[in-house]
Amino acid sequence: MKLKKMKQVNIKPNMTVNELLIEMKEGGFTCRKVALATDIFEEMINDKECKTFLGLAGALVPGGMRKILKIMIDQELVDCIVTTGANISHDLMETSGGSHYHGREDINDMKLKEMEVSRIFSTLVPYDAFAKFETLAQKVLETIPNRQMSTREFIYELGKHIDDRDSFVRAAYEKNIPIFSPSFADSMLGVQSWLFSQTTPLNINVLRDHSEFTEIIYESNKIGALFLGGGVPKHFIMNGSQLHNGLSYAIQITMDRPEHGGVSGASVKEAISWGKVASGAKWINIMADVTLVLPLLISGILSRV
Amino acid sequence: MKLKKMKQVNIKPNMTVNELLIEMKEGGFTCRKVALATDIFEEMINDKECKTFLGLAGALVPGGMRKILKIMIDQELVDCIVTTGANISHDLMETSGGSHYHGREDINDMKLKEMEVSRIFSTLVPYDAFAKFETLAQKVLETIPNRQMSTREFIYELGKHIDDRDSFVRAAYEKNIPIFSPSFADSMLGVQSWLFSQTTPLNINVLRDHSEFTEIIYESNKIGALFLGGGVPKHFIMNGSQLHNGLSYAIQITMDRPEHGGVSGASVKEAISWGKVASGAKWINIMADVTLVLPLLISGILSRV
Amino acid sequence: MKLKKMKQVNIKPNMTVNELLIEMKEGGFTCRKVALATDIFEEMINDKECKTFLGLAGALVPGGMRKILKIMIDQELVDCIVTTGANISHDLMETSGGSHYHGREDINDMKLKEMEVSRIFSTLVPYDAFAKFETLAQKVLETIPNRQMSTREFIYELGKHIDDRDSFVRAAYEKNIPIFSPSFADSMLGVQSWLFSQTTPLNINVLRDHSEFTEIIYESNKIGALFLGGGVPKHFIMNGSQLHNGLSYAIQITMDRPEHGGVSGASVKEAISWGKVASGAKWINIMADVTLVLPLLISGILSRV
Amino acid sequence: MKLKKMKQVNIKPNMTVNELLIEMKEGGFTCRKVALATDIFEEMINDKECKTFLGLAGALVPGGMRKILKIMIDQELVDCIVTTGANISHDLMETSGGSHYHGREDINDMKLKEMEVSRIFSTLVPYDAFAKFETLAQKVLETIPNRQMSTREFIYELGKHIDDRDSFVRAAYEKNIPIFSPSFADSMLGVQSWLFSQTTPLNINVLRDHSEFTEIIYESNKIGALFLGGGVPKHFIMNGSQLHNGLSYAIQITMDRPEHGGVSGASVKEAISWGKVASGAKWINIMADVTLVLPLLISGILSRV
Fold it and tell me: What are the phi and psi torsion angles at D281 (to 5°)?
């Protein structure tokens, strides 16, 4: 095993983010991992043979990542997205005029309730933002065709009728990048869909997601993934990757830990035993908040591609 | 604010678990929290007016919790369960004769792959356990009626045809305790359901879960919850609790942290701002692995009820 | 690699803690690790050739562990202790009549300051408890001989003049179990020692700790360690173990994680590369709060030895 | 409470780090906290009345932070440093020609031991690097005057005789920025000091640190702190701040969590109850690896001052 000396991270005034990422490769621990992840992601998206899957979990829009997700889609950095229903819901919430607000995690929650403001750690969402979302959701649901569809098609149809240049769901529709959300029923969008379906037929069959996703997997020569958080998106993508001899590239960014056996915090390495990650894959685990790493990662990537 | 002195935890040889839990109330930090959680859970299940919801996330069967879940159901400690598909799948895996095995988290994953063994942190699952599960799943799916149903009804029908005294899904069927799994599509059971549906109609409408769950909520005078891990189960139960002025009791056991804004690690306290936990509720967050706390908690409870 | 089937954890009413620990070996993840740690600790203390070192970090007395530490010393479960100064300080605080109180971590800290109460997460300490500690400390420091000494000898002398049957520092003195605290200067005891030394000579040479500790190491045929938290105690013990071909037994209980490279969260396994843990050692990492695991562990051990 | 809308983070190709930090204020969670911390740090160092204390814990040099620490000192961004002995030791190790190397955390530790390479998570240190350090340490210790001194004076004297432009200990000497290390005995430097003292008198009195540190505190109109990790450095600085009505600014960057009551993971907010942080202070907790945040933070600061 040949050892490569660590030069230590050097910084200068007015460095670009990409220059910093290159320097960060000369550090250790999470510093170096973020730099290596940028290289792996660059290689993955430059690999013409490789289809890049993006797993989205966690509160990414309340975390400020909405524009970055849109940029990733506009720049076609990813080919297929699997997300929790929350990310779709919060994207539509912003479209509806309901915003997210800066806050602190130590605010008195009973006071917030009196003020009709919900807290997502240090982000605040006024109750009326939910009301605006609900109004928009009911309006857009009117446009959904009455035929059995996967969540992928459902979200595509939603995107078709979202009139908002800042919406990443809209952007995915425009770029024809499929978004799957097999667990969408557990989200504000899911609740609105259910309410809507009480009076108007809505025919979403989550099992169809497997048909369509499997097809995408089979069409790919190689597959790679960027997991932002874990949850259903990570598990769903990993499940599909088993059909393909495993991911050739895998980047995982999460704050979850592995010791209780949950899939969200499981090391990517463990997935090798399942055949979900190929033995020779380029992979990396980063133990950090997505909201801290993603701006760095995408900022670096934009400078490279 | 009147202060109560900490007496410090005293231990004696041959203490019962319940005696230890009572002593642990005289400690601090997680020690005391587990003791307090036992008291809250005791109060919740003794509260005749209160319906107790159980959220199951994480790898509970690979973590050894299968028998304990069954005991909780047999003893009717809970009234309604919301789970990820994984817990159902791994319960059925055991029914099918496919077992989980003791392992270590530092085993070489490539060697495991060659040996056809999957790793879930320190637990191992041979590939043939999945094969056994798949065979059983296809067999049981044959019995599912061809009509539109919620996941609750689907799992009830599965339970009807599971011939295994150790299965907690079977036990829930026998006790008529509903199990919801709105995200079941993302699980081995979901994949088997999809495969089955390629040749035989299977009509599971996840949005129906909202109808049935809401009814259960509305029927309840008071509601309380024990969250084992977070994820979809926690979010789904919390979403329902908003319709009810909030949970009167809430116990959360997770290793997830709150700083990245995800719902799994969010403090129960935050839910007060949403109206998901009542202002005067008895609630507690325990930062620990469910597999360490649940045996203590239920062992203590069995001695009390 | 021969695989051993997981039987799943069974619980019964009125189980003893030791019965539960034995059952917990049939679970996974942290559940099983606590059971295995109990076995390893049992083997270590029964191993007549092995000297057992105990590392104490974190807020163990505010966590309610004071009596348990005393029991461990009274029962001679350990041969040598390395601790932060905080644990000595809080032990003496209790001796002085200054107590720790039950609290919550969400109490308003500015209110607490007005009430003259300090918060250690969910434990509260009134300012007058510190005042009582300071009075006692100055009194006991009067008895310290004026000669150059290690922290080990300093704490022994303190113990000689503590008149409190509940003090673990006193118990260690009575049992002649050495306590080292090379970082004691950074503690309330260290501050009191400094104040005292402004008028009366106090001659503590922390480097002498190495002489005495190394001697204990060299006298031992085998060495083993139980690390409660990490910090200076873990590092100091590990440093000594390098002189001995490494620990034959190592149990680590911490909530710290390894990804940022700190020694506190480092896996015991990493220490193998340093020669600090022997290649064939029996070792285990438990990711949990000491205050939750220690009562279980020692309760089980008391039933076994 | 007036709410400020979150604009979401926008990124562009070739952004500077400082531009990204400004954008990151429009995100949430850790993203926004890093941006706010940069503002607080900027305000703290621009505040002529305020003395800035830097707490250094964790494996910062194996994490690649050596050059950045030197830059912080050269640019006089801090006025006083408290560190674990490890950071001094690893700085001197680099001076001695013993380097740190890039590695992975999943390398076989027994293989590493055979190769005579130690592992610090994903960083590797060959045994001969320790040997080089030991040689240099013994050489430099020869120059230490034989009089009683604090660790501050000891490290100053070490710095005087380090001939290395890249050493941050040397840089602190040149800039006359005091470095305290009350727990230095527990470090490679401490071991070398002890070995040296077996034949040549070495008279380091850790209690003197309190005298000198208290003086610095008393000389200051206002005090502020940046805590990189927790441990002894954080506790020592916080202890001093109590003498001053508390820190006016406090930034904490750590991966440690608060639930087990340890000081390292304790929220800065808790310190308000102790009077260690002033009621009106500007403070923030960032849950992240220092090696990821520090390059961003200092890179941003260099562009601002």
Answer: -65, 155
Nearest CA in chain C to B99: C5
Identify the CA nearest to A260 among candidates C291, B97, B70, B294: B294
Between CA A272 and CA C256 the distance in angstroms is 26
B93 vs B187: CA distance, rounded Å: 12
The shortest CB-CB distance from B261 to any of D28, D257, D260 is to D28
User: Min CA distance, A5 vs chain B (Å)?
Assistant: 26
Both tokens of A18, joined, read 């990409």
ipTM field: 0.97
End-to-end, the C-alpha distance of chain D in Å comes to 33
- Classify residue D245 as left (phi > 0), alpha (psi -120 to 50) or beta: left
* pLDDT (mean) for D139-160: 97
Mean pLDDT for all residues in chain A: 97
Name the residue among B12, B28, B293 with its Cβ closest to that of C122: B28
pLDDT of residue A2: 86
**Residue found by looking up tokens 């926004």 in the block:** D32
pTM of the full predicted structure? 0.98
Contacts for B73-76 with beta carbons within 8 Å, 24 or more apart? B73/B168, B73/B171, B73/B172, B73/B175, B73/B177, B74/B171, B74/B175, B75/B302, B75/B305, B76/B175, B76/B177
| DSSP H/E element including A224 | strand A222-228
Q: Which one from A51, A70, A132, A276 is the annotated catalytic residue?
A: A276
pLDDT value at D273 more than 90 = yes
Do D205 and D150 contact (CB within 8 A), yes or no?
Answer: yes
pLDDT score, position D1: 74
Domains (ranges, CATH) in chain B?
31-296 (3.40.910.10)
Closest-CA residue of chain B to D285 = B259
**By the 8 A CB rule, do B295 and C9 touch?**
yes
pLDDT averages per 10-residue partition of chain A, 305 residues: 94 96 98 98 97 97 98 98 98 97 96 97 98 98 97 98 97 98 97 98 96 97 97 97 95 96 96 96 98 98 95
D305 has pLDDT over 90: no
Nearest residue of D to residue A15 by CA position? Answer: D16
pLDDT the model gives residue C1: 74
List chain B residues with pLDDT less than 50.
none
C132, C222, C234, C276: which is the annotated catalytic residue?
Answer: C276
Cβ atoms C129, C117 nearer than 8 A: no
What is d(CA B84, CA B59) in angstroms, rounded to the nearest whole number? 9
Contact (CB<8Å) A100/D68 = no
- Could you tell me which of A87, A58, A83, A105 has the C-alpha nearest to residue A152? A83
Structure tokens at B183: 């995200």
Residue with tokens 């993508």: A237
Mark the ranges of chain C whose per-residue pLDDT is less than 50.
none
- D78: which 2 tokens? 């801090």
Q: What phi and psi, each to the nearest 5 degrees, are found at residue D32?
A: -65, -35
Q: Among B202, B245, B251, which residue's Cα sits nearest to residue B228?
A: B251
